[in-house]
Amino acid sequence: xxxxxxxxxxxxxxxxxxxxxxxxxxxxxxxxxxxxxxxxxxxxxxxxxxxxxxxxxxxxxxxxxxxxxxxxxxxxxxxxxxxxxxxxxxxxxxxxxxxxxxxxxxxxxxxxxxxxxxxxxxxxxxxxxxxxxxxxxxxxxxxxxxxxxxxxxxxxxxxxxxxxxxxxxxxxxxxxxxxxxxxxxxxxxxxxxxxxxxxxxxxxxxxxxxxxxxxxxxxxxxxxxxxxxxxxxxxxxxxxxxxxxxxxxxxxxxxxxxxxxxxxxxxxxxxxxxxxxxxxxxxxxxxxxxxxxxxxxxxxxxxxxxxxxxxxxxxxxxxxxxxxxxxxxxxxxxxxxxxxxxxxxxxxxxxxxxxxxxxxxxxxx
Length: 365
Known about the structure:
By secondary structure, the chain is mainly alpha-helical. It has 17 helices and five strands.
């Protein structure tokens, strides 16, 4: 092959070298241009794949949705989810989350949902608020801001059930705090006192990795709290008195006397509490640090008022749940007036009541 005579190699003596090389250059340019466009297309496709949630590897496809999150799959499980319903509707046994690949996505009432997203990404507007609005039964919603409250309050009021707001820190300006709930409520029953003490102790953060032997100190805090709550309930003491006991171990000797003399006091609780009060001062003070921390928010007069209902303001969890009520719980976990541990204890009270109702319901195991 000679560059100045390409025709001889191709068997065409009349082929012009100039025409040959011009044609070859144009073909190479066309191939190069096509390759460049293909490369750009593949790169853009990759970018779209990364940005499009439907194209991310591991995301449910249409077949997955049909099998595990469709209306048909939800209704198939309805007799297990709510045995008391004879002709269940999808919205009575689940929640509509949205659509995926053109198919409606449902989750059942027994499923827990973990919603992950950065601030202002629409978690509340797209999921939480819709779930509150669509709930056919009772709703308990917690938040550190009043967004969900202001968006759904009027709609839930028109739902027919009782609507209450527990806002001990007055985070929702212009909305009456309304409901008052005492952590002492029901604690004349030892099991209730134990559950309430567990919820309050968990809010101290003592079991966190930063506290040496944190599990031990949280356990001691829980034991002391359940005894104080039990004594306060048996003797009809107010939350202000309970708060005074948590501030000073010497003042808590009053609770020991109640537990030792009351005929309905739990066996051994007086001795257990007295043993803590009479222990080595360093041990006692360490225990009482957790006890005082659990109800530290009561130092705020507004919070103390919110947990001090009058006789005619007693909250009835069972009536609330059976009446398909709505309860908005607002609290923060930081700052001097943080009342998140009280909200956690309040929720424990409601959950335990719901368990008892469920155990008595038709179809319960």
